[in-house]
Amino acid sequence: MSRQLGISLVEILVVIAILAIAAGFAIPNVGGWNCAREVRNDFDNLNGLMQTLRVEAMARNRSMMARVERGGNKALIRAWMSRKSSPGSPNCGGSNWDYLGAGQVIQIKDVQFKRASLTNHGRDHCFHPDGTASSARYTVTAQCAGENTSYKTQIFGITGFLERTKYNTKTRRWDEL
Description:
Elements: H1 9-60, E1 64-70, E2 72-73, E3 76-82, E4 97-99, E5 111-112, E6 117-120, E7 124-127, E8 136-144, E9 147-155, E10 162-168, E11 173-176
Antiparallel strand pairs: 1-3, 1-7, 2-6, 3-4, 3-5, 6-8, 8-9, 9-10, 10-11
């Protein structure tokens, strides 16, 4: 009796066919996962900026402002600090602010959205030294693999607290993160 060693051409072709079929199912899911991850990164960057401004306002005894320069796709948000010390809660907006981007004494990186679309209610949002804030709501959304991926940040004025939620398409509710 002779023993055959090795793999036949038919066996190799069967393995290649199985791998091709598995890759066909996996590749579309990877694209959707990457998109969802980029949307979450945009959302996390937005919340990181808001938390930084909240802390800096109390630490420096000055109001801090997030100004939406561009909304929608490719949104851009910049950080600003009031020029004067503010014991209370001054109005948000106006021209009495210093930009905190590159090259400034305090540098807070601008938030540039890569994938998601930003919807906000109002252009400017402020955090004040006394811990209060102007109330605001930001929604970050993108279409990923045929499904909407949405996150929302609600900022409560009296406490400056940030509530972060994600829309659950199965239950059709906003779930807290």
